[in-house]
Structure formats: C-alpha cells, structure tokens
Amino acid sequence: MSEAGALLGLPGTPGPYFSSPIRRIAFVASPTVLATESRDRLTLLHGNCPVPDADVVVCLGGDGFMLETLHRIMATHAATPVYGMNCGSVGFLMNAFAEDDLLARLARAQAAVLHPLRMHAVTQTGAVEEALALNEVSLLRQLRQAAKIRITVDGRVRLAELVCDGVLVSTPAGSTAYNLSAHGPIVPLSANLLPLTPISAFRPRRWRGALLPSTADVLFEILELDKRPVAAVADFTEVRDVASVAISEDRSVVTTILFDPEQGLSERIVTEQFTV
User: Fold this and answer.
1) Looking at the domain covering 25-115+254-272, what would its CATH class be?
2) Angstrom distance (rounded) from CA 71 to CA 111
3) H or E segment and range at residue 160
4) Is residue 246 a contact partner of residue 232, using CB atoms and an 8 Å limit?
C-alpha cells in the first residue's frame, strides 16, 4: 500500500481511501483520442510518475483497459489503487469522465477490494499453465461438438458429466459480466460466494449452476479429450486443449479499485439486479 493510502475495512465500507495528501499520480490511457488527449492534459496539471512509484493510478479508458491495467499491477505484486474514468462504452468499473477537480475526487474516493481467481490448467500434453482472473475463468468447446465435463468441488464429484458449450466460475465483481450473459446469478461483493454457471447446458438440460463458498476448490475434468477438445480462458489468458482446470480464489493477491462516493462497486452490483 502507498504511503498516501490506508485501506478502511471491507468492500463497500464508507470512508475515503486516502488518509493523507496525494502527491504521485500515474496516468495510463487506452489508445483512443479521448483517453490519450485527456492523459496529456492531466499530465500537464499533475505530472505523471511511473506506475511503481505512484500513490494512485488513474486509468483512462473502458472496462477492458481497466482489467488490463489491474492485471499489470497484479503482475508486479503491488497494491497500488486504481481510479478509472470512463472513456469507453459501458464503464461498469469506471467513474464518470471529468478532468476537473481530480485531486478532490481522489481524496473522497472509496475502495473496493478484489481477490482474483487462480486458474491451474493442465493440457493434454501435460503442460501446466496458471493465470489470474478478476472476472471469470471459463471453459469453452473448441469444435462443433459439445464438451463433456466432470465437476468436482472440494474433492467431491458433484456432477459426473455436464454436456455443454462450456462452463464458468465467476468472481462477485465479474458476476455482472459473462456470468450474467450466461444467465448466472449476480452476487454482491460481501457475499463471499462464487457463481458456477453452465454455458448452454444440454445435459442435464435444466441445471442452472451453483453458488459456491469463496473457499471452494473447483476442478473441471474434460471427458473424451480427443473428440471434444476444450479451451480455458482466465480473463485474457487462453489455454487450448486442456485436460483439467482447477480454480480457487487467491486471497493472497489483492487489487483495489477506487470509486466516487455513492457510486461504489457494491452499489453498482445491487443496482444491476434491478435493471430491466
């Protein structure tokens, strides 16, 4: 954590993140005209320090660029908070775009603390790939035939054979993304639950998935590997021809997103449940 900041409580806890003045800001921007020109103007006003030295990273772009930024920071094992301003389309993880009064907005900002999922994938050749996901880890059929997947939770086989286009495990923060599109449940940040959601399940046809405790260890084993190959995707990392995929929440990794008061991630997730 930076010298300027002190984390106050759990996700959604009221109160500003920063307890002392913000002196070092790193600006990062997606390659759009709005984002890059805004970065240049803000740099003239506030300077632009390297990300590893920053008290806060201000991310200018859309949700995709925000995820890329969070992954870059996680890769360095840093706990630098990220404040996003929407220069994209949806902007679910972003604050409203405005260049004025940035320091005042940062001083009032509140934190949402996220823990990613860790994917441990073993391919048909025995190769091992690991990756982190802030949204979800999804398994998807690679060819025309449906996948066949065995699902084990905490060492117990819960579903001997799921015939489907795919299946995913989502974080609470990612429950409004691909998980929601696949008709999975929206999960509040404070619920300590992970949605497990099938994608176009064929057998059992009416199975809608499960809500698992955040401590659960999930194992997907691919059946009929040669005939029904499957790819695994953790946010931006894709591994093809997987034989098994283990997924669990990694609480040793912390990433912090800052939001304007009354516009926090917990509130957005609740609001999304009433959107028609």
Assistant:
1) alpha beta
2) 17
3) strand 156-170
4) no
Q: Encode 104-129 in three state secondary structure.
A: HHHHHCEEEEECCEEEEEEECCCCEE
Judged by DSSP in three states, 226 sits in coil
Residue boundaries of the structural domains of the chain = 25-115+254-272, 117-249
Say which CATH topology domain 117-249 has.
Tumour Suppressor Smad4 (2.60.200)
Q: Extract the tokens encoding 181.
A: 């599109």
Instruction: Indicate which residues carry an active-site annotation.
Output: 63
User: From residue 62, how far is each of 6, 218, 271 by CA, in Å?
Assistant: 26, 31, 20
**121 Cβ contact list (under 8 Å, min separation 6):** 128, 129, 130, 131, 232, 239, 242, 244, 245, 246
What's the burial of 75, exposed, middle or buried (CB within 10 Å: 0-12/13-18/19+)?
exposed
Q: Is 42 left (phi over 0), alpha (psi -120 to 50) or beta?
A: alpha
- Full-model pTM: 0.88
d(CA 139, CA 251): 22
Dump pLDDT digits (tens) for 171-206: 999 999 999 999 999 998 888 999 999 999 999 988
Q: Across-strand partners of 248?
A: 118
* Alpha-carbon dihedral sign for residues 63, 25, 79, 96: negative
pLDDT digits (tens, 9 = 90+) for 167-180: 999 999 999 999 99
Whether 117-249 and 25-115+254-272 are alike in CATH topology: the answer is no
Q: Give dist(CA 247, CA 115) in Å, integer.
A: 13
